[in-house]
Specification:
By secondary structure, the protein is α/β, with parallel strands linked by helices. Helices cover 43% and strands 10% of the residues. The termini are far apart. It binds thiamine diphosphate (TPP).
Length: 336
């Protein structure tokens, strides 16, 4: 158990992880029932990373997310109902139903968006961090990305820039061992965090199934960044329980074995944390059950809300798709 974690926060971290787990389990069901169009990338198994990192942030700190973004968004305070509404394609959704799973953003909570382009959040986080630094604001920017992004040039350009300019950025690499069906070992030599060391930034590896360890490591990185100490890199070793995306369950893939999945599930981040909370007398088994019931109610309410919301009308199809007051948008005409 972390030494710097107040008990109330330690309990909240369990509820936050359980919310992410239940949200994405529900998503799978709703995709199968055709209530969510298209498909999603579920976060189940990786909850300790999003919650451990975001628990060390304030509302004014920002994050950039990935294609597997539901966990980051919920951990930063995203609204369950508005998220489901977005996934349903409804007007009440975060992007008025136009964005879907991979574009959910809420600037008021510092969520600078999920992103379907692998690695693309890293330079956006640098931009936000540059603003914080230039304005003398004590906030930090977190860039989440997967092990698949570690070989993207843009991530290395972002890390180099952050190091040179000593930007308050924390690069969080979620190493779940696979990029789609490509195993990390086939495409990357050395530990991922060793690469960031070569840019001259603090870089470390942490057990991504232990939310307390992720929190402690992030907390130190945030303190350093706020004090002007520049960027950090945190490699979180974790595992995704489901396929790369919802549709994979209907395919016969062989890139990982059931035995491997079962081994990782033995280290489930929720079970691990529940055990820690109970052992540390931070809460009882009954408290855990009560938190679970409350979260389940929230999820059910969120789905109900999204189901009742109206769909956008076909006449509005082009609204919110283009920047307004920009000279060359179709809505305004090229002549203006
Ligand atoms: C620039 C770019 N290249 C390729 C893709 C296709 N693609 C989507 S997700 C993905 C794998 C990403 O793996 P990783 O970064 O490890 O994240 P994970 O899916 O494991 O969370 C790929 C290659 C993409 N979306 N963007």
């Amino acid at each position: 158990m972390s030494n710097i974690l107040p008990p109330q926060m330690a309990r909240k971290m369990y509820a936050d992880m359980f919310r992410i787990r239940q949200f994405d389990i529900k998503v799978v069901e709703l995709v199968d029932d055709d209530l969510i169009p298209g498909s999603c990338h579920e976060y189940c198994g990786q909850e300790a990373v999003a919650v451990g990192v975001c628990s060390a942030l304030t509302k004014k700190d920002i994050l950039t997310s990935t294609h597997r973004g539901h966990g980051h968004t919920l951990a930063k305070g995203g609204d369950v109902g508005k998220m489901f509404a977005e996934l349903f394609g409804k007007s009440a959704g975060y992007n008025k139903g136009r964005g879907g799973s991979m574009h959910i953003a809420d600037f008021s909570l510092g969520i600078f968006g999920a992103n379907g382009i692998v690695g693309a959040g890293a330079p956006i986080a640098c931009g936000a961090a540059h603003k914080f630094k230039a304005a003398g604001e004590p906030h930090v920017a977190v860039s989440f990305f997967g092990d698949g992004a570690i070989n993207q040039g843009v991530v290395h350009e972002a890390m180099n820039l952050a190091a040179i300019w000593r930007l308050p950025v924390i690069f969080v690499c979620e190493n779940n061992l696979y990029a789609m069906t490509t195993p990390l070992r086939d495409v990357t030599i050395l530990e991922l965090y060793e690469r960031a060391q070569s840019y001259g930034m603090a870089s470390t590896k942490v057990d991504g199934m232990d939310v307390g360890a992720v929190f402690d490591t992030t907390f130190s990185a945030v303190e350093r960044a706020r004090a002007g100490g520049g960027p950090s890199f945190i490699q979180c070793d974790t595992y995704r329980y489901f396929g790369h995306y919802s549709g994979e369950r209907h395919m016969k893939t062989t890139y990982r074995t059931q035995q491997e999945i079962d081994e990782w599930k033995k280290r489930d981040p929720l079970d691990f944390w529940a055990e820690r909370l109970i052992q540390g007398s931070i809460c009882s088994a009954q408290d855990i059950e009560r938190m679970k019931r409350e979260v389940d109610e929230q999820i059910a309410e969120g789905v109900e809300y999204a189901s009742q919301c109206p769909a956008p009308s076909p006449q509005d199809a082009l609204e919110h798709m283009y920047a307004v007051n920009y000279p060359y948008t179709p809505a305004q005409g090229a002549e203006q």
